[in-house]
Amino acid sequence: MDLIKANTNNLTALWTAGGQLAGQYMEEPGYRLSISGSGEWPNKLWFTKPMDMQAIMDIQLQWNMDKLSLPVWGDEIEKQELMLKASGFEEKLTQIAMSMNLANVPDHVEHLVIQKVTSKPMAKTWSQLFQDAFGYEISTDTVYKTMNSIEYFIGKHNGVPVGTAVLFVDPHGIAGIHSLGIIPSQRRKGYAEELLIHMMNIARIKGAAYATLQASDMGKGLYFKIGFQQDFIIKTFIKHKN
Q1: Which of these, 31, 72, 139, 183, could form a disulfide with 132 (CB 3.0-4.6 Å)?
Q2: What is the DSSP string of 92-105?
Q3: Rounded distance between C-alpha atoms, residue 124 and residue 13, angstroms
Q4: Residue of 132, 91, 105, 122 whose CA lies nearest to 200
Q5: Cα angle vertex 170, ends 164, 171, to 5°?
Q6: 142-201: per-residue pLDDT in tens?
Q7: pTM (2 d.p.)
Q8: Residue ranges of domains in the chain, CATH in brackets
């Protein structure tokens, strides 16, 4: 299996769903855009053919890049990085794209109760938890409008919400695990690992063969511990108004 393609297909399908269901999604020659109706997600622009300086210039003339982030990956990531920096973009974050065969998933543990978001009040709770955990907003409206296509989960311990996760199983049977975060007051209690294992078991029950995710350098240790492997790097760039 081409794990790079599996990971990026899941990721771009998730962004596409976010824009189509809760904002705007546009297909332009050589690239795609998915823009939120509210909040800060997805707000992504990604290339579907090799990037060049002319394409970067044209995009900046056509779109307000102040609200968009531009992720890049693949064999030419260093070349892409140089072109973007030469065009005034700056690196926002680096993520480690990882994958794992779900035949090897550990058994789930019983400390956390996992609730799927199925209503607007639950969407509001999820959105608030996510902002507390990650420091930016996926709006209640976005969660509510996409929850029939994207699965949002809240982890609770003794009735107290402690964190969030997203599971997105795409048409290729790849389970993308996203937005897995624990609020600051509940960290260092093992909840992230438990939440991850729950997501993997739900994905396996749904018939997914592989799980993919994108980890920060700080968080990658948890995923290595569970059995994920590192596949490639994704770098995301932004450009602020001068």
Answers
A1: 183
A2: EEEEEEEEEEGGGP
A3: 24
A4: 105
A5: 160
A6: 999 999 999 999 999 999 999 999 999 999 999 999 999 999 999 999 999 999 999 999
A7: 0.96
A8: 3-96 (no CATH), 101-232 (3.40.630.30)
